[in-house]
Specification:
Radius of gyration: 42 Å
Strand content: 15-25%
Oligomer: single chain
Largest sheet: 6 strands, antiparallel
Helix content: 55-70%
Strand order of the largest sheet: 2-1-4-5-6-7
Distance between the termini: 26 Å
Shape: elongated
Number of strands: 15
Length: 559
């Protein structure tokens, strides 16, 4: 639902903030007071095209901002996909407009494309009026309306499960029939065989490359290593006086007096351990020096092997594991190509079996949809009759289409609003007021199934009065028990149903004209209903009548 709408430098509005409520929000005001500005401002937040004439004269920049609260799963999914932060259900949509006709859009502070804004906004608000871009005009949405109105989930789910298998097999088949001629296929076979043979011939082992590089580094520095180790060994163990002998003499001397003192005994033990450690180190140095000796051809072999593996790494992967994975992939592809004729026939047979099942599921879904569409037609005509649209006839036209993820049906509503006229697409025959009432009737039928939380109705009272207007008001009130509704009206029968009533007025100061909006308390609301009844000539009688209309409306809702 919309929590707040903020406008700055928009048409006749200097700066304005509206806090909206749950239930039915009614907006009234004199013709030309600026009611359309509110709807246009909201439209900008919903992704509508910006006309620079909407910017307040004499300003360079304007702002429209709407604060929403929604926990819809579809909305969360779209926000997550586009990495837009979404905290505690709050959505802030900001549209900044400029004098040069450009604008920027943000959602929760993130600048986004207008197309994405429209997608997000379509999950938050439905706007119905003469100038709004309504879903009902688009035949591709009629199928969704039929599905929402009927119990088709079981058939749709069964169809979708089979359709997924169908598309998987088709994808595999298309992969085999990828329009390559025999020459191209043979070239691919030759390339795959060459790559497989090259990898196999290398007899690569996991971890081999790192071991070879380490060994090569030792061989490349072997002379330096050998000399340093020899010098170290000489200091420790060679010559008339060497470190090992000196350490031994020191240990012997300490040993001869170790029994006289615990401290000396401790020193003796440590010195003895060091002596033995030096002997071990000396042996290891000697062994390591001997291992460093090699023939020149050994380094050449190492270099050749490292180059061979580097060649594989450049072509097939950075590590031995990557190369093995690539090998498995191309081996599988080669097998697939060599056995493609057999595989193709197998897939064709499988596709035929699945398609037979899919056809039955699609037919079952179509039949369920036709039943749902017929019920929807009857319900809509009944609802429209109550809204003073007595001569409506309607037919849902089904046409077969290719299998898709939503079935095999194209659906379009054909309608006539006047007696004797032929059925035509709804976009060809309906006025703004008729479309608004049509959508009001439709929303009253599918209010529980539709997860869009806010409905906006503009010009819903066009061409109606009396009992029809009362019925429209009651219908809005009923839907408002489940949805937030924002409705602009000129009729007291509709305005009397408001949960929250706002008055839009045009005022003048010494310099310019501006528009204001305020939420009415009970006395002011009675006065505004009286104005809607009798115009500017408000009398005691019209005040009494206004109170009576409000009371009757309140009594009906309590019942």
């Amino acid at each position: 639902m919309i929590l707040e709408l903020y406008m700055k430098n928009c048409a006749l509005i200097d700066e304005l903030r509206i806090s909206l409520e749950k239930g039915l929000n009614i907006l009234t005001g004199e013709t030309g007071s600026g009611k359309s500005i509110i709807i246009d401002a909201l439209g900008l937040c919903l992704g509508n095209k910006y006309d620079k004439s909407f910017l307040r004269r004499g300003t360079e920049k304007g702002v429209v901002e709407a604060v929403f609260y929604s926990e819809g799963d579809r909305l969360k999914s779209v926000l997550d996909e586009n990495e837009i932060e979404y905290d505690d259900g709050n959505i802030v949509i900001t549209r900044i407009i400029y004098r040069d006709g450009k604008s920027t859009a943000r959602v929760n502070g993130r600048t986004i494309r207008l197309s994405l804004l429209k997608e997000i906004a379509s999950l938050l608000v439905d706007v119905h009026g003469q100038h709004s871009n309504q879903a009902i005009f688009r035949p591709e949405t009629h199928l969704r309306f039929v599905d929402m109105s009927g119990d088709v989930e079981k058939e749709k789910s069964e169809y979708t499960d089979v359709y997924k298998k169908y598309t998987e097999v088709r994808r595999e088949l298309l992969k085999l029939d990828d329009n390559k001629d025999e020459m191209e296929i043979q070239r691919e076979i030759d390339l795959l065989k060459f790559q497989i043979n090259e990898i196999e011939a290398a007899s690569l082992k996991e971890g081999e490359y790192d071991e070879l590089v380490a060994k090569r580094d030792i061989f490349r520095n072997s002379e330096k290593i050998y000399n340093s180790l020899s010098a170290a060994y000489g200091v420790l163990h060679e010559g008339d006086i060497n470190t090992i002998d000196l350490a031994g003499r020191a240990v012997a001397e300490i040993s001869s007096v170790s029994q006289y003192s615990e401290k000396i005994s401790s020193i003796y033990e440590r010195a003895e351990r060091i002596m033995y450690e030096l002997q071990d180190i000396s042996s290891e140095i000697r062994n390591c020096r001997e291992e460093t000796e090699f023939e020149p051809y050994e380094l050449e072999q190492l270099e050749t092997r490292v180059d061979e593996i580097n060649n594989l790494r450049r072509k097939y992967g950075n590590t031995e594991k990557d190369i093995f994975l690539y090998y498995d992939r191309i081996s599988e592809r080669l097998s697939e190509i060599l056995n493609r004729d057999e595989k193709r026939e197998e897939l064709k047979g499988k596709l035929q079996e699945i398609e037979s099942v899919l056809e039955k599921k699609a037919e079952a879904l179509t039949e369920k949809r036709k039943t749902a569409a017929e019920n929807l037609e009857n319900e809509l005509i009944k609802e429209l009759n109550s809204l003073d649209m007595k001569n409506v006839t309607m037919k849902t036209v089904f046409e077969r289409k290719q299998y898709s993820n939503d079935g095999a049906d194209n659906v379009e509503f054909m309608i006539s609003f006047n007696l004797g006229e032929e059925l035509k697409p709804i976009s060809k025959v309906a006025s703004g007021g008729e479309i608004s009432r049509f959508m009001l009737a439709f929303k009253s039928i599918i209010a529980d199934a539709d997860d869009i939380e806010t409905l906006v109705f503009d010009e819903i009272d066009t061409g109606i009065s009396g009992i029809a207007a009362q019925n429209v008001g009651e219908k809005l009130s009923d839907i408002a028990d489940k949805k937030q509704i924002i409705c602009i009206t000129h009729l007291p029968q509709i305005a009397a149903n408001a949960d929250s009533h706002y008055l839009i007025e045009k005022r003048n100061d010494e310099q310019r004209t501006y528009t204001t909006i305020e939420k009415l308390d009970e006395p002011d609301r009675i006065n505004e209903i009286a104005r809607l009844i009798s115009g500017k000539n408000i009398t005691d009688t019209t005040i009494i009548h206004a109170r009576e209309i409000i009371q009757l409306t309140s009594n009906r809702r309590e019942c």
